[in-house]
């Protein structure tokens, strides 16, 4: 549709047009039920069919092994910063965090309330531009898990492979690269993600957890944070975010229609490649500080050598219907988030604009 912009926001973020139009067509009367998904009982057969299909399509997409549960929860990934330690360890247990950006940092800080987290590596002194080499990592003996943030949304640092924990299980916050590429779920104890970047509207948080890790929550764990409660009740212990789950389901269907995550990753690589090469070939006019081998396919942060032009860059881009390009307030500069639903045409338009802007201001 002509009146839509290219939305480079970090999240909530752009959704596939096809999905929005389908939701629009079903908004008023879903599947002949005579009501909107927003109006349905979460225990009725219609909504049950929606949540079951969403789960089964997600299982197909990520090839989730049967010994893992999929939970549709609320509270954002931020709630998981607490739920993970509450469910996986006792107050005296050691756990390890690798901190490659501000989300991992927040996760580690929240865990301090519920157990004994150790930050075994932090990229802070290098302004979060790296992932450590795994061979140098030393976990604490007896640690219950090793936590990583698979893609740091603000700093644009993304793991391309994953460390194998020396102790405990691997836990990953995949909020900003969830379903952007195939992932071997069996390497993880827990994967969690707020869905509002790649797979739906805000309000849904997906947790994929190995079943044997469920059922050991600390006594003071609120019921809403207890994985066992949600697992035993198929994510229907209380009223779930029904409409958001429905939207995620439409996105999963759409990703499957595109050929699944192998194809999705190919598209994402192509988009990231043209954007990073425009930055790298700009003779320093644009700069991305992140080490090349771990640059995110999803969030591309960059600065202008003439930083005083950044405001104008954002404003001029918005005039051409490319919006939300301002970097996170904590780091400044520019950030282009190019999640699954950002079409190649959007990135092509952005790089054409960047070259033009450079020619005008070099
Ligand atoms: N982790 C990552 C990697 C994120 O990008 C975000 C949101 N930007 C969060 C956690 C926090 O998510 P929420 O706002 O859903 O709590």
Automatic annotation (TrEMBL):
Keyword presence, Transferase: yes
Catalytic activity: O-phospho-L-serine + 2-oxoglutarate = 3-phosphooxypyruvate + L-glutamate; 4-(phosphooxy)-L-threonine + 2-oxoglutarate = (R)-3-hydroxy-2-oxo-4-phosphooxybutanoate + L-glutamate
Domain spans labelled Aminotransferase class V: 5-350
InterPro entries recorded: Aminotrans_V_dom (IPR000192), Pser_aminoTfrase (IPR022278), PyrdxlP-dep_Trfase (IPR015424), PyrdxlP-dep_Trfase_major (IPR015421), PyrdxlP-dep_Trfase_small (IPR015422)
Pathway: Amino-acid biosynthesis; L-serine biosynthesis; L-serine from 3-phospho-D-glycerate: step 2/3
A GO biological process held by the record: L-serine biosynthetic process
Cofactor(s) it depends on: pyridoxal 5'-phosphate
MF terms (GO), sorted A to Z: O-phospho-L-serine:2-oxoglutarate aminotransferase activity; pyridoxal phosphate binding
EC number: 2.6.1.52
Pfam families registered for this protein in UniProt: Aminotran_5 (PF00266)
Transferase keyword on record: yes
Keywords, alphabetical: Amino-acid biosynthesis, Aminotransferase, Pyridoxal phosphate, Serine biosynthesis, Transferase
Residue ranges of coiled coil: none
GO CC list: chloroplast stroma
UniProt xrefs under NCBIfam families: PRK05355.1 (NF003764), serC_1 (TIGR01364)
Function recorded in the entry: Involved in the plastidial phosphorylated pathway of serine biosynthesis (PPSB). Catalyzes the reversible conversion of 3-phosphohydroxypyruvate to phosphoserine.
Family statement: Belongs to the class-V pyridoxal-phosphate-dependent aminotransferase family. SerC subfamily.
Name the record gives this protein: phosphoserine transaminase
Native source organism of the sequence: Vigna mungo
């Amino acid at each position: 549709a002509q009146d839509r912009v290219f939305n480079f926001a970090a999240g909530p973020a752009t959704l596939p047009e096809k999905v929005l139009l389908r939701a629009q067509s079903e908004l008023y009367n879903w599947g002949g039920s005579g009501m909107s998904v927003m109006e349905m009982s979460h225990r009725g057969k219609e909504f049950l069919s929606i949540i079951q299909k969403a789960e089964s399509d997600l299982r197909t997409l990520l090839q989730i092994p049967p010994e893992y549960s999929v939970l549709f929860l609320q509270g954002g990934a931020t709630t998981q910063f607490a739920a993970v330690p509450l469910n996986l360890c006792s107050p005296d247990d050691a756990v390890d965090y690798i901190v490659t950006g501000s989300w991992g940092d927040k996760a580690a800080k929240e865990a301090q309330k519920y157990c004994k987290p150790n930050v075994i590596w932090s990229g802070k002194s290098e302004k979060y531009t790296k992932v450590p080499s795994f061979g140098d990592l030393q976990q604490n003996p007896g640690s219950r898990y090793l936590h990583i943030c698979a893609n740091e949304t603000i700093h644009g640092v993304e793991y391309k492979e994953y460390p194998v924990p020396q102790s405990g299980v691997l836990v990953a916050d995949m909020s900003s690269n969830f379903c952007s590429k195939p992932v071997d779920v069996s390497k993880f104890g827990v994967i969690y993600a707020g869905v509002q970047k790649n797979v739906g509207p805000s309000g849904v948080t997906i947790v994929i957890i190995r079943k044997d890790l469920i059922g050991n929550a600390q006594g003071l764990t609120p019921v809403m944070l207890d994985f066992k409660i949600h697992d035993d009740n198929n994510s229907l212990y209380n009223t779930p975010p029904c409409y958001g789950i429905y939207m995620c389901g439409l996105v999963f269907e759409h990703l499957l229609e595109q050929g699944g995550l192998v194809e999705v990753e190919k598209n994402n690589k192509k988009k990231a490649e043209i954007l990073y090469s425009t930055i790298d070939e700009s003779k320093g006019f644009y700069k991305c500080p992140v080490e090349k081998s771990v640059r995110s396919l999803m969030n591309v942060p960059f600065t202008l050598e003439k930083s005083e032009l950044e405001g104008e860059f954002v404003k001029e881009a918005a005039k051409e219907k490319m919006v939300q390009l301002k970097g996170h307030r904590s780091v400044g500069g520019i950030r282009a988030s190019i999640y699954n639903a950002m079409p190649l045409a959007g990135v092509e338009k952005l790089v054409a604009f960047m070259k033009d802007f450079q020619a005008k201001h070099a």
